Amino acid sequence: MALTREQIAQRIAQEVQAGYTVNLGIGIPTLVANFIPPEKNVMLQSENGLLGMGPFPLESEVDPDLINAGKQTVTTVPGASFFSSAESFAMIRGGHVDLTVLGAMQVDEEGNTANWMIPGKMVKGMGGAMDLVAGAKHVIVAMQHTDKKGRPKLLKKCTLPLTGIQCIHQVVTDLGVFTIEDNAFILQEYAPGHSPEEIAQKTEGTLKVSSNCKEMSS
Amino acid sequence: MIEGPKVFKNAKEALFDVTDNVTLLVGGFGLCGIPECSIAALQEMGVKGLTCVSNNAGVDDFGLGLLLQKKQIKKMISSYVGENKTFEQQFLNGELEVELVPQGTLAERIRAGGAGIPAFYTPTGVGTQVQEGKETKVFNGRLYLLEKAIRGDFALVKAWKGDTFGNLIYRKTARNFNPMMAAAGKITIAEVEELVPAGELDPDQVHTPGIYVQRIFQGDHYEKRIEQKTIRPA
């Protein structure tokens, strides 16, 4: 079985170490928060100016002045702080954020990624993604392994306008967990019922299988 | 009514000299912390050819989306505009000029503008379209881009509380781009939910010192629209 969005998020949550400050992007990355145990004392950073983001509010707690970077209403946890966008990106660019998880349209074997624009079609903008990939100590991409037409998204070279170069350290898709080293995707774990051979077929970039590679428990 | 040399009655009076073709710095992130009253006044005044520097472009029927609908904006400088269909349409039709800037670079360019720094080096955007046409330099073995400061003819900011001297206190994540923009406007017009006489705000709690604010007014009927209301079950 390919991993669901929740299972991708759950697997990424295992990479989050105790005491980390983590920035989660929109989509699957947002779900990662649901799987980080409270005893890890992780602080979530939201680039619109909040360190210490809590869960969505109860109906009675909804506050239009308290949102996350996805413009969703949120809450704060004890120890939270608010600050300006300039301060927020000083944290990000200055390397104070331990881990960034973001979605992507493409990742290539050099660790380049594209997630903000399809020329002539989609104009949304990069938001904070370029700053996050340039500044965070560790960057994980969460995405589907192939696009809606079944084409690989783990490529030799990204074809869409880039968000950042040589910045992605790890990719978790519905089919597996990959690290990026020396211009190759290294398969570390694969989804139950799938095989490294099948994944190689659905990956355009160079794929190597780690000597410790294992099937994920279902 | 509270009086003072910087105090104006409402948005329309405070924005009296905003003309066609000026550059406006507009605070807010999404619809959070946007100068609702000033935007409404701009729409009523009908000024055109505006260059707006703002992280987002509002939604179709609120925030800067209101000015886009009436085609009052010539150029937008933003980081993310995905919530606004009018924007996408006008851009793809070539009716609207757009400069997309990484969010942290946008914040820092505005901060630099207010702080008298003409340009700065950043690692953000290296190897991407953002690098095109920019000077680069290597520091400690890493490549950086030279990014230039941004200033505005006017800055339109929104705070929670303000005093007659122009000191501002923001609330929660409604702070976002407002403090940097306040400093980077040649004329900064602040709207606040509550205006108090100077002396009533605790100086230790002031986020934006009044020196940056030339005009202030108390807004009314804040809608504070929520873009994505998300709740957890009780």
Report on this model:
The complex is a heterodimer of chains A (218) and B (234). Chain A is α/β, with parallel strands linked by helices. Chain A has a single domain, classed as Glutaconate Coenzyme A-transferase, CATH 3.40.1080.10. Helices cover 16% and strands 30% of the residues of chain A. In chain A, the strands form 3 sheets. A 10-stranded mixed beta sheet of chain A has the order 4-3-2-1-5-10-12-13-14-15, sandwiched between helices. In chain A, helix 5 (196-201) links the parallel strand 14 and strand 15 (207-215). The longest helix of chain A has 9 residues, at 5-13. The mean pLDDT of chain A is 96. Chain B is an alpha/beta fold. Chain B has one domain (11-118, 149-218): Glutaconate Coenzyme A-transferase, CATH 3.40.1080.10. In chain B, 20% of the residues lie in helices and 27% in strands. Chain B has helices spanning 11-14, 36-45, 65-69, 85-92, 103-115, 178-184; strands at 23-26, 50-53, 73-78, 97-100, 119-122, 136-139, 142-148, 152-163, 168-169, 185-196, 215-218. In chain B, helix 2 (36-45) links the parallel strand 1 and strand 2.
